[in-house]
Automatic annotation (TrEMBL), chain A:
<dbReference type="InterPro" id="IPR008511">
    <property type="entry name" value="ROH1-like"/>
</dbReference>
<feature type="region of interest" description="Disordered">
    <location>
        <begin position="208"/>
        <end position="237"/>
    </location>
</feature>
<keyword id="KW-1133">Transmembrane helix</keyword>
<comment type="similarity">
    <text>Belongs to the ROH1 family.</text>
</comment>
<keyword id="KW-0472">Membrane</keyword>
<dbReference type="Pfam" id="PF05633">
    <property type="entry name" value="ROH1-like"/>
</dbReference>
<protein>
    <recommendedName>
        <fullName>R3H domain-containing protein</fullName>
    </recommendedName>
</protein>
<keyword id="KW-0812">Transmembrane</keyword>
<dbReference type="GO" id="GO:0016020">
    <property type="term" value="C:membrane"/>
</dbReference>
From TrEMBL, chain B:
<keyword id="KW-0813">Transport</keyword>
<dbReference type="Pfam" id="PF03081">
    <property type="entry name" value="Exo70_C"/>
</dbReference>
<dbReference type="InterPro" id="IPR016159">
    <property type="entry name" value="Cullin_repeat-like_dom_sf"/>
</dbReference>
<feature type="region of interest" description="Disordered">
    <location>
        <begin position="430"/>
        <end position="466"/>
    </location>
</feature>
<comment type="function">
    <text>Component of the exocyst complex.</text>
</comment>
<comment type="similarity">
    <text>Belongs to the EXO70 family.</text>
</comment>
<dbReference type="InterPro" id="IPR046364">
    <property type="entry name" value="Exo70_C"/>
</dbReference>
<feature type="compositionally biased region" description="Polar residues">
    <location>
        <begin position="1"/>
        <end position="10"/>
    </location>
</feature>
<dbReference type="InterPro" id="IPR004140">
    <property type="entry name" value="Exo70"/>
</dbReference>
């Protein structure tokens, strides 16, 4: 991700140059205040872009493309909770994280880590970041599942884009779409019985039940048509979760957001503030990822993961985002749709209308109907394109966040170990 | 394919062979949609197939596909579609048709797919659409059927792969020599089992694999690649998962839990994990690659992406555990398990690379390997600090081998058994310019040896130039060895008695030397010159001991001044005998409590003491006994006969005084 590298690189350069300029001078404390201030401003800036993307004016577009020389508009800002938006979110997080580490570690006397407030705050942060790793893993797996769904939608697009669209093509698309819609429900909900179902057969039975009682458009359509091509428990397969069965994304987020308290009084101007910011960011991005991407056991995901004090300047965009996503989540829980990921929402909608077309299909198709379907197929094609382009990089970015957290944790632990070694090293167990 | 030999006349009209519509043979009472179909005999079906082939050739050969150049579509196209549908219906009702029938079916599906493709080129011609609609339905039904076949073939592996001992999870306790040995034995045994079974995974009969290959090829050529790959991908992933569960090798731990796990539990989990990784790299991954290569033989690109996706999901999960483990708190004990993990991951890399399935994946594993390597280096380098800070306040009774020496030497011995691994880790994770600086050639290391004791300065055992190799790892081992020496030197100062100090240093020096000589791996690191010099130093301690303890004894046995003009100075003589007896008794009492557990060293010491003391005593007694008045007086002053002395010397260094706190060491 060149964007990330670029931002990060330039930022770190600034920091190091600034540090080297001032390190000699005895203004370390002043410098720290400046750094903290800068950090908070950067957090605020980055998340403001995510909240109101319309303000992205700095985006430059290449004007070399001959077709667009006359009208060069910046690309439309990504819709909140879309794949591109999530990628920007992770980018923002990675930038903030790098900056935070610079603020926390570089140029600091390691002894400070063994004194309040860092002696308490840093271990707390490390623990929270380990929990975030499990969320990253669950999300990685969730993206795998979305990729599987995407393939099904792609089948429908390929099939219905053929000319002419015959009964065979429609049946093929219908099969894929029905499976897609069924899986969207069962994949997202199978965590509920994940503890009781271990084998494929058991899963299959449950899914078959689910499919039968499945009230939404897709299954209803499926039951009315040729039952040979209806996905049933027998041939409906999905990926099993790759995390331990008792693990719950919702609970993990709850645990992570517990005892996340804003620093008060004198602490609020010191190092406690950036540590609190980092904690909040970790919880925020994991919460947003879990909301957007199917994960094991999302039921009960808090709509508000915490009350960030409204007087904190840097927190305003985060508060805004939290409210927006929280609202969306409430809607999702009410409707029982598949996930907050924009592309999934659209996919579910388009899949349903395509199924409608398929149900009313008669060969040969009337032109008007064909045109209507072509529009929907194009829409689905566009969603698939966005997924095709975005899911792989998103997954890589989630891994990058994972690796970054691991690495930072190691770096901080090294500093802590160093203090301990100075005091007393581990005795040899003879 | 046969060239379009034109059996059609110029205006594109296809003559229908009178045999084309055969009389109904067996009538099948199929379900609603099929009940009008008839069962065709094999011959009839073959004839129709030939007709279809001919038709495909003809229309494929037409250059201009836009206009109404399509010849009239003959009726047998419809019939052919119906034959396929009826075949599917029969299969669904489990009317077995035999292998020939299956082959015919696959060929028919390919034919109808070719036909559909050929016809669709004329899609602008309205006349093409009704038959196209018909063939597309037949094709779709055939594909759904094949997809189901494919899935059930994939899911019904005939025999379950179940190596007897694969679930026999290794358990081993914390580092100690015994469990370490058992552990490596077990690993070797495990490896044999794994290799023996590796050919049987995944357990499909060759016929089934052939069928899968046929189905995959047919589906892909008909444009159903996505369906085919999805079925394969999901089936294989779930199969691997089930396999792991069955072997109790599933790694489903949260990072959070692993980081908090107590070491004993984690160690068991690591052993289990190593088994999983081994099973993956020796059995499951090669098996998956083989299966993929068979099934997708004709489609290398599809195969590559499928296999790499399947492996990726498993590998990432395995790596997460490794990452979590490397985040746990480090301690000396953990080194060996980390090295085991490192080795296991190296093999995993080998098993996933090969055909460059996924560079990204290899990079992920490499990153994890590096992190574990770094942890291992840190742990090994932390030994420096641990040794430096190992300060005892109480000396080990009897000057015996210090537990630190035992621990460190055993530790180094096992470390050096991982020499190749460590060499590569150190080469990678230490800065090449990190220069080893030996501890200042101080007095600390050679304090108890006077400057004359060592013939030359370079004979110091702490001389860095003496070691055989100078890789970063061997330098680190030498440094640890030097620190151990320095630490022992420090500990030796806890002994007030200089003789005992020498015994202590001798004991420990000897132990170190024996350990190095006994392990080809450390010996290789330290080198023969080091061993020789180390022997010299131990000998020097021996000499020092002899001097410290026995010089004063020999002094009493000096003949000087006892005979004055041929007459014995009796009081002095008596005094000398008395002093000798007392001194010897005192030495015997003290030093039989001292501990030299190395039998050879013990006997060398006794022999050397005997060699010095007994001749001197024998000669002293022989010469002066006559000057003592009577036998009675002689007995009073001469408590020991030379033979008694010999026996008593044999009792030295037994460590056998009960008043001393006994230690197993």
């Amino acid at each position: 991700m060149p964007a990330t590298d670029h931002n990060q690189g330039s930022f770190l350069n600034r920091i190091s140059i600034r540090r080297s300029q001032f390190a000699a001078v005895d203004h370390i404390h002043d410098q720290e205040v400046v750094d903290l201030d800068l950090f908070q401003r950067h957090v605020s800036d980055r998340f403001s872009l995510l909240l109101s993307p319309s303000t992205t004016t700095t985006t430059t577009t290449t004007t070399t493309d001959s077709h667009e020389t006359h009208h060069t508009h910046p690309p439309p800002p990504p819709q909140i909770l879309s794949i591109s938006w999530l990628r920007n979110l992770l980018d923002a997080f990675l930038c903030c994280e790098a900056e935070f580490k610079a603020v926390l570690v570089s140029g600091r006397d390691p002894a400070q880590f063994s004194r309040p407030p860092l002696d308490r705050l840093v271990p707390d942060l490390l623990e929270r970041s380990v929990k975030a790793l499990d969320v990253c893993n669950a999300v990685t797996h969730g993206v795998d599942i979305v990729q599987h769904w995407h393939k099904l939608a792609q089948i429908a697009v390929t099939s219905l884009s053929q000319n002419p669209v015959g009964e065979g093509q429609v049946r093929r698309a219908k099969k894929a779409l029905t499976t897609l819609l069924t899986l969207m429900v069962s994949d997202d909900n199978k965590e509920n019985n994940a503890t009781t179902t271990t084998t494929n057969n058991a899963h299959a039975t449950k899914w078959a039940d689910r499919t039968r009682s499945f009230s939404r458009r897709g299954a209803a359509a499926a039951t009315t048509t040729n039952n040979k091509e209806r996905p049933t428990g027998k041939n409906l397969r999905s990926l099993s979760w790759s995390v331990s069965k008792s693990w719950s994304a919702a609970k993990q987020i709850q645990t992570m957001s517990a005892n996340l308290v804003a620093p008060r009084g004198a602490e609020s101007t010191g190092l406690a503030q950036p540590v609190y910011i980092m904690n909040t960011l970790i919880v925020f991005i994991t919460w947003a990822l879990v909301a957007a991407i199917p994960c094991q056991e999302r039921n009960g995901l808090p709509t508000h993961f915490q009350n960030i004090p409204r007087n904190l300047g840097w927190a305003q965009p985060l508060i805004g985002l939290q409210e927006k996503i929280g609202e969306e989540w409430k809607k999702k829980e009410k409707k029982g749709t598949a996930g907050l990921l924009e592309e999934l929402k659209e996919m579910e909608k388009v899949a349903n209308s395509l199924l409608e077309f398929a149900d009313g299909f008669e060969f040969p198709m009337e032109e008007e109907k064909a045109a209507g379907m072509a529009v929907k197929v194009a829409e689905m094609g566009e969603i698939c394109r966005r997924m095709e382009e975005g899911l792989g990089p998103l997954n890589q970015q989630v891994r990058e966040v994972f690796h970054r957290i691991v690495k930072s944790r190691a770096e901080v632990l090294d500093v802590l170990d160093h203090i301990q070694v100075c005091k007393h090293s581990a005795p040899l167990p003879y | 394919m046969e060239k379009a030999h034109n059996s059609f006349n110029k205006n594109g009209h296809i003559p229908t062979s009178p045999r084309n519509i055969p009389p109904p043979a067996v009538s099948f009472n199929d379900d609603a949609s099929d009940n009008h179909l008839h069962h065709y005999t094999a011959d009839e079906a073959n004839r129709i197939s030939e007709d279809v082939d001919r038709f495909i050739s003809v229309i494929s050969a037409i250059d201009d596909k836009s206009s109404s150049s399509l010849p009239e579509v003959p009726d047998f196209i419809k019939t052919y579609s119906e034959i396929i549908e009826s075949r599917i219906t029969r299969s669904r009702k489990n009317v077995a048709g035999g292998d020939d029938d299956e082959l015919f079916f696959i060929e028919s599906v390919r034919r109808i797919s070719r036909l559909t493709n050929a016809l669709s080129e004329f899609s602008s011609d309205a006349r093409a659409n009704p038959p196209l609609n018909q063939t597309s339905v037949a094709l779709q039904r055939a594909m759904v059927f094949l997809e189901e076949e494919f899935r059930s073939l994939l899911e019904d592996s005939t025999s379950e792969w179940d190596p007897q001992n694969a679930h026999n999870i290794q358990k081993f306790s914390s580092f100690n020599s015994k469990s370490q040995q058992e552990y490596s034995d077990r690993c070797a045994a495990q490896r044999e089992i794994d290799t023996a079974h590796s050919v049987e995974y995944p357990a499909y009969s060759p016929e089934d694999v052939d069928k899968m290959h046929e189905i995959a090829t047919t589906m892909i050529s008909a444009g159903y690649e996505t369906e085919c790959c999805q079925v394969y991908y999901i089936s294989r992933r779930n199969a691997i998962r089930n396999q792991m569960t069955k072997l109790e090798l599933e790694v489903l731990l949260n990072m959070d839990d692993v980081v908090k796990m107590p070491w004993e539990t984690l160690e068991t989990e690591i052993a289990r994990w190593i088994n999983v990784v081994k099973t993956c790299s020796e059995t499951i991954f090669p098996g998956e690659k083989r299966l993929g290569e068979w099934v997708f033989n004709d489609h290398p690109e599809i195969r590559r992406s499928l296999i790499s996706n399947i492996l990726r999901a498993v590998v990432i999960q395995l790596l997460d555990f490794a990452e979590a483990t490397s985040m746990a708190k480090r301690s000396a004990d953990k080194l060996f398990r980390y090295l085991d993990m490192y080795d296991a991951l190296q093999k995993l890399i080998a098993s996933i690379s090969g055909e460059s399935y996924s560079d990204e994946l290899t990079a992920e594993v490499t990153a994890a390997v590096d992190r574990i390597g770094e942890s291992a280096v840190c742990i090994f380098c932390d030994l420096e600090n641990s040794i430096k800070s190992d300060a005892a306040k109480v000396p080990v009774p009897g000057g015996a081998v210090h537990p630190l020496t035992r621990y460190m030497m055993n530790y180094l011995k096992y470390t050096c058994e991982y020499k190749d691994t460590l060499e590569s880790i150190f080469a990678k994770h230490t800065e090449p310019d990190k220069k080893y600086t030996p501890p200042p050639p101080t007095t600390t290391t050679t304090a108890s040896l006077s400057s004359n004791d060592l013939e030359r300065e370079s004979d110091s055992p702490h001389n860095f130039e003496t070691v055989a190799s100078t890789t970063p790892f061997s330098m680190q081992v030498v440094m640890v060895m030097d620190l151990l020496d320095a630490n022992l030197e420090q500990k030796s100062r806890l002994y007030k008695d200089p003789s005992l100090r020498c015994v202590f240093l001798m004991n420990n020096g000897r132990y170190i030397l024996q350990k190095v000589k006994g392990s080809p791996e450390i010996r290789q690191v330290m080198g023969d010159i080091w061993c020789r010099r180390r022997s010299t130093v131990v000998r020097q301690y021996h000499k020092n001991y002899q001097r410290e303890t026995w010089n004063r004894v020999l002094q009493c046995l000096s003949h000087d001044g006892l005979l004055v003009n041929g007459k014995a100075n009796k009081p002095l003589l008596k005094e000398r005998f008395k002093i000798f007896t007392n001194t010897f008794d005192e030495i015997h009492r003290t030093q039989s409590a001292w501990m030299v557990s190395d039998e050879q060293l013990q006997s060398e010491l006794r022999i050397s003491v005997s060699a010095v003391v007994i001749p001197a005593y024998r000669s002293f007694v022989g010469r002066f006994r006559q000057y003592l008045d009577s036998g009675k007086q002689a007995d009073k002053y001469i408590k020991y006969q030379p033979e008694d002395i010999e026996t008593l010397i044999e009792g030295l260094f037994e460590g056998n005084i009960t008043s001393m706190a006994r230690r197993k060491t």
